[in-house]
Amino acid sequence: xxxxxxxxxxxxxxxxxxxxxxxxxxxxKALNEAGIYPDVISGASAGSIVGALYADGHSVDExxxxxxxxxxxxxxxxxxxxxxxxRMTGLYKTLRExxxxxxxxxxxxxxxxxxxxxxxxxIEYFSEGELVKRIIASCTxxxxxxxxxxxxxxxxxxxxxxxxxxxxxxxxxxxIIGVNVNPVLPETKYRGMVNVADRILNIALNKMNxxxxxxxxxxxxxxxxxxxxxxEASQGKxxxxxxxxxxxxxxxxxxx
Length: 256
Prior knowledge:
Layout: E1 8-14, H1 22-33, E2 40-44, H2 46-55, H3 60-67, E3 77-78, E4 84-87, H4 89-98, E5 111-117, E6 122-126, H5 132-138, E7 143-145, E8 148-150, E9 153-157, E10 173-179, H6 193-209, E11 218-220, H7 236-253
Parallel strand pairs: 1-2, 1-10, 2-5, 4-7, 10-11
Antiparallel strand pairs: 3-4, 5-6, 5-9, 8-9
C-alpha cells in the first residue's frame, strides 16, 4: 500500500484558556529548542492569539513581552450591558499594532481559527479573510464579552463548541501536537465564585476534548496550570514557565 504524502510535516493545535494561554508561549519555546517548528497552526480563543502572532513571524519572547506585566483590564472596555459586559478594545488595538499580517493569507504559517456561529449554533473555522476581527471573535466569551459581527453573522468564542480545534488539520499532517491549557485535577477547596465558575468551565472543556487526545502524536497538558485562573494576567511568567517545563518533559519522553 502506497503511503500518501501529507500536506504538512507538523501541525500544532492550541486550546483556549484565557490568560493561561501564556503557557502556549512556553510550549512553543520548548518545541523550537527541540527543533520542532509547526508548518500549520489551529487555535481557539487564547490559542488563536498566540498562534496568529507566531504565524506572523513573532518570536516567543516577543509574544510574551506583548502581554507580560499587564492587568486584565488593560485589554477591556466596560460598556452599558446589552449583549455583553465588556469589549476587548485593548486587545484589538494590541493585535492591530503588532500583527504585520492584515489577512490570513499574509501570515508566514497557515492558520485556522475556531469560532462559534451564534446564529446557526455551529462551529466554523476561519483560514482566510481579515485576521484581527476573527481572532477577537474566537476570544469572545459569551455574556462577558460583546459578540462580534462579521459579514452579518454573530460570532462568539470558538471554545464554546471546539476548544481544541483538531479537525481543520487532522488529515493534513504527518505529526500533530496538541496543547491544552485547561487541566482538571481533584479539588476540595474553592476560592470564591470566580474559582468555581472557572473550574466548571474547565470540566466542560475537558469532557469535550477527551476523545481527541489519542489522535495527537504529542499531547501536552501542563497540570500545574490548575492553580491559576483564566483571568490571572499577572501570573503570566509563572504560566509561561509551567508550559515550558511540561513541554520539555513530554518531548524528552518522546525522544526529542
